[in-house]
């Protein structure tokens, strides 16, 4: 699993404060720790920065590249901010996060990525929003995103399709369709584009104590359909256990067996079955309930684990 570390994100109060104070040590330490925890790239989300992008993006790029050699993912809606960052990057091939099928962004951002030799994440989203159904998301990729890349002779190996994970709290109906989108995208074009998701989006607006479990169960499902790249928290050791168990087919303990069974069921186009779980085990019971939420079988509520 190729993890793009998500932890330099403006939504974090610590990141906001460090950015306000131009605290180089904070950002260097956070970048190093993510890489040490297994991140293969580091996402940097500082928001639009419409007023100070020309100062802030070169500063953060130089700060982070001082201590790590991995690719930086420039995560902003500000195209000028993207270019300010790209002009400063000197190490690994960067990633632009992101374009979409919205005409203005699809016109500008792939050209910017090509100019600087960057990879680009492309979202399966049009101006009217994100479709629910898997087929509609795949169609955006094959009818808009990929043709645009071909039109400008963009290297297909540098295209990363993001079919957009949405939260189970309020957008629950999207969750099973996203799984099928990841499955189908791998057969929608030759050569197959890379596919990435923002894993933790599935638990946005969920109580903090439940977020890691929802993320892990969804991860097992997505690994079942072949996901190999994601923006995620590399510090989640239990998440990293799930990755290792599924990648190595490790079934040496009961949790490893359950997560592998989830991945195997989804890989086969099946749903997890009650018989796959020992409901007398509290962890098994919680995982089973979470599968039902993510497959839209049971309506999500913040108290779902208590029901």
Question: Please, could you describe this protein's structure?
Answer:
By secondary structure, the chain is of the alpha/beta class. It has a domain at 165-307. It has 11 helices and 9 strands. The protein has helices spanning 13-20, 24-36, 53-65, 79-86, 103-116, 134-151, 174-185, 211-224, 237-248, 254-267, 282-294, and strands spanning 2-9, 41-45, 72-75, 95-99, 119-123, 159-162, 194-195, 197-198, 229-232. The longest helix has 18 residues, at 134-151. The two termini are 33 Å apart.
Q: How many helix segments?
A: 11
Given as residue ranges, the uncertain stretches (5+ residues, pLDDT < 50) are none
Q: What class do helices, strands and sheet pairing give?
A: alpha/beta
Give the fraction of residues assigned to helices.
40-55%
What topology emerges from the helices and strands here?
Elements (H helix, E strand, L loop, with lengths): L1 E8 L3 H8 L3 H13 L4 E5 L7 H13 L6 E4 L3 H8 L8 E5 L3 H14 L2 E5 L10 H18 L7 E4 L11 H12 L8 E2 L1 E2 L12 H14 L4 E4 L4 H12 L5 H14 L14 H13 L13
Parallel strand pairs: 1-2, 1-9, 2-3, 3-4, 4-5, 5-6, 6-7, 8-9
